[in-house]
Write a structure and sequence with these properties.
globular
């Protein structure tokens, strides 16, 4: 009997190289999940401890925010590049390279003698962010086609959980063992994931190859330059204002480089990113949802820790300590994970469109609740549970929409593009959160007053500021729900018959003896 992975090969456009067999495929999935955890954890570990790192290095609030911005910049450039390289040269090589770079960046950060050195190491760590879409490429031959959507949902949610776990553990690690441990933990995970990739994923499989030659260097440089300008403009708008000369110059540079990149791609025999792919309805709708959801998710990651640490006399927050912040936010990760476990059943009853719409509305409701009811710990926990449910529905489903919208040999670059767009939205959300909270900072905060949470003067913000922040984030999530209405019909839901289950039996790594291939959408279906 042919293996399930071989049937995936026959069911996907572009073709995969020969399968490693059922047992090998079942071992690949947990390794891919570990890669996603190792790559996502470093992204969030600095979020709740920025004030502590600022004090430790004797830095200032503007400089220390580059620990986040630098990571996002390098990740934004590396994401589409790694996705295309993996589609061309194979996932095993690219995943191994990304994990080696991540380990080096984490080790360097743990030994950083200055804030400048730490920022440079965060830029190095951000390069590994491009490994996430590569895992989705490998997923197509790691699980049976009948369970592909469920596997994508689990990987996407695992990434969200890892991001939340980073916020949970960072505070206790910094307080108990010092700043080095904040970066040594993700380094250990990266090394373990590297061993798994080298042992479980054979050199020739699972891979999908891009036929027709190699793409040029110039499109990569132009695309990276446009992204750098865009993210710098977003981050600098918080400090300099949206109409400052430097921000306007960066916006102009982004437009010029973006236009030049588009011209190069239209003329290229082998494009770096096939712009025709973005014309597919599944791709551009998923990208729009990802952008708006990124505004809400990253904006919350930047604003919620500060809200929790705000002293009650400010009119918002519970005055939580650095140790308590992670515990209060942990329900987001747990409820997102439990939601992802239910997506297999939900796919049998509801369309991807319905699930993303529901996720946007649920997350929007949680942000609106946080805006007005945040003075008790039980209230915060309840809203975090609701937010986790919404996050799980959105992140687990958008990845499946992207995978069902492109052929197999474009999976890596398509997921990379979607991740990049979510990063852009996240940068906008984080910048908007910082701008609003700065605008509502009290005079005592500006003069240097601290509070019970111990995170420093910049965190003392009038309660009205938190209302404004979370109402804006709620609006972004409602907008993502509205955009999700445009997502096309699931290709597996043919008229007149029930949809194929997204998962059955033993979960994403379980091999079904008679899987039904998920067809790659035709050009007409995609549009």
């Amino acid at each position: 009997m042919r293996s399930a992975a071989l049937k995936v090969q026959e069911a996907t456009a572009g073709g995969a190289v020969p399968s490693t067999g059922q047992r090998g495929s079942r071992a690949v999935f947990p390794v891919l999940a570990l890669v996603v955890v190792a790559v996502n954890l470093p992204q969030s570990v600095v979020v709740p401890v920025l004030p502590g790192l600022q004090e430790s290095y004797g830095s200032d609030p503007v400089t220390v925010t580059w620990l986040i911005t630098g990571f996002l910049l390098s990740s934004a450039v590396a994401t589409p590049l790694m996705g295309r390289l993996a589609d061309t040269y194979g996932q095993r090589r690219i995943l191994a390279a990304a994990l080696i770079v991540l380990s080096a960046g984490c080790l360097g950060a743990s030994l950083a003698p200055s804030i400048g050195w730490l920022i440079a190491m965060r830029v190095v760590q951000g390069i590994s962010g491009g490994a996430v879409p590569v895992t989705f490429s490998a997923l197509r031959v790691a699980v049976p086609p009948k369970q592909l959507s469920y596997g994508a949902a689990v990987l996407a949610t695992v990434g969200s959980i890892a991001f939340s776990v980073g916020i949970v553990v960072a505070g206790p690690l910094l307080v108990s063992t010092g700043r080095a441990a904040v970066f040594l933990l993700p380094m250990v995970l990266a090394v373990v994931a590297l061993v798994g990739v080298l042992v479980v994923m054979p050199a020739g499989a699972p891979e999908t190859r891009t036929a027709g030659g190699r793409f040029g260097v110039l499109p990569v440089a132009l695309f990276g330059g446009a992204l750098v300008c865009a993210l710098l403009a977003i981050s600098q708008s918080t400090n300099c204002g949206g109409t400052s000369p430097i921000v306007l110059a960066l916006i102009g540079g982004c437009l010029v480089l973006g236009f030049a990149w588009a011209l190069q791609e239209r003329r290229a025999t082998v494009p770096f990113i096939d712009l025709r792919m973005m014309r597919r309805r599944g791709m551009w709708t998923a990208s729009l949802v990802a952008f708006l959801a990124g505004v809400g998710l990253f904006g919350c990651a930047a604003g919620l820790p500060r809200l929790l640490q705000a002293p009650p006399e400010s009119g918002a927050g519970v005055g939580a300590s650095l140790r308590e912040v992670g515990l209060l936010m942990s329900p987001i990760a747990f409820s997102a994970f439990l939601t992802s476990l239910c997506t297999g059943r939900l796919y049998q009853r509801f369309s991807s469109r319905a699930l993303v719409v529901a996720g946007g509305l649920v997350s929007g409701a949680s942000f609106a609740g946080l805006a007005f009811w945040n003075g008790e710990r039980w209230q915060v926990v309840a809203w975090c549970v609701l937010q986790g449910i919404g996050n799980g529905l959105i992140l687990s489903t958008v990845a499946a929409v992207v995978m069902n919208s492109v052929p197999a040999n474009e999976t890596g670059v398509a997921n990379g593009m979607n991740t990049n767009i979510r990063t852009l939205g996240g940068s906008l959300g984080a910048a908007a959160t910082a701008s609003i909270l700065t605008a509502y900072a009290s005079s005592s905060a500006v003069d240097g007053a601290g509070h019970a949470g111990g995170s420093g003067s910049a965190d003392f913000v009038d309660g009205t500021g938190y209302v404004a922040v979370f109402l804006v984030l709620a609006g972004a999530m409602v907008a993502s729900a509205a955009a999700a209405v445009l997502i096309p019909r699931d290709p597996t839901r043919a008229p007149g018959r029930e949809s194929e289950p997204a998962a059955s039996g033993g979960g994403p790594g379980h091999a079904d003896s008679t899987p039904t291939p998920t067809p790659t959408p035709t050009h007409r279906e995609a549009r």
